[in-house]
Amino acid sequence: MSHLHTGSCLCGAVKFELEGEFKKFFLCHCSRCRKTSGTAHCANLFAPGATLNWLSGEDKLSFYRLEDTNFARTFCSVCGSNVPTDAKSRGLVVVPAGCLDTDVDITPQAHIFMDSKGNWDDHLSDVAAFETMPS
């Protein structure tokens, strides 16, 4: 599979291209990821040494870093979608899996920070599943 990936935000204002290989894929349940995603976890891909190119909308990007931590998010200032964060000081690009428009050849390797998961994040696989919005 190609190591060239493309992605975008929900409104389409921000588009990017990433050249590099995803080495890690984690589903993070920490309170910070839950707050930025509004759900049980963030699905983040890690691409050490990858090259990130913004194809459009770079002027629409906002960046947030939680002081005194490695926690950071880059997002579209129009629609709020999380997009890749180029963590140059750490030598990697962190990519929210949901913003990719291309397939990846890696599956999630672990659920992490389970000690801070939401109290409602148990037995989610037992909840009814529907192909579309139920009536």
Helix residue percentage: under 10%
Number of strands: 11
Query: Which structural class is indicated by helix and strand composition?
Result: mainly beta
Note the beta-strand portion: 35-45%
Distinct helical segment count? 1
> pLDDT below 50 for ≥5 consecutive residues: which ranges?
none
Order of helices and strands: EEEHEEEEEEEE
Query: What is the CATH C level class, in words?
Result: Mainly Beta
Straight-line N-to-C gap: 39 Å
Give the overall shape. Answer: globular
Indicate the CATH topology. Metal Binding Protein, Guanine Nucleotide Exchange Factor, Chain A
Q: Largest beta sheet, briefly?
A: 5 strands, mixed
Domain module count: 1
Q: CATH architecture, please? A: Beta Complex
What value does the Rg take, in angstroms? 15 Å
Order of strands, widest sheet: 9-10-4-3-11
The chain-level mean pLDDT equals: 94
InterPro entries: CENP-V/GFA, Mss4-like_sf
Domain CENP-V/GFA: 5-121
Family: Belongs to the Gfa family.
Protein name: GFA family protein
Task: Describe the protein's topology.
Layout: E1 4-8, E2 15-19, E3 24-28, H1 31-37, E4 42-48, E5 51-56, E6 61-65, E7 72-76, E8 82-83, E9 85-87, E10 92-96, E11 110-112
Parallel strand pairs: 3-11
Antiparallel strand pairs: 1-2, 2-5, 3-4, 4-10, 6-7, 7-8, 9-10
InterPro entries: CENP-V/GFA, Mss4-like_sf
GO molecular function, one term: carbon-sulfur lyase activity
Protein name: GFA family protein
